[in-house]
Write the structure tokens for this entry.
Amino acid sequence: MEVFKTNVRSIRKAKLIIQKLAEEYPAYKINFDLSDCDKILRVQGKNILEKKIISIVTALNCTCRILE
């Protein structure tokens, strides 16, 4: 599992990001925790491509980085 920090604030935007990621990676389990101060994006699956996920999220005008 990989955990990302984002600036996603709305449920609508989170759903859009989940949809785009699911299209690219249908086997991954993807969810947001918008109640967390870091607006967490969790991605579960095998061989997670962190840079590609960050690229997809940033293309949707949101910040995204791996949570240390």
Observations:
- Residues 2-66 form a domain with the Alpha-Beta Plaits fold (CATH 3.30.70.100).
- The chain has one domain: 2-66.
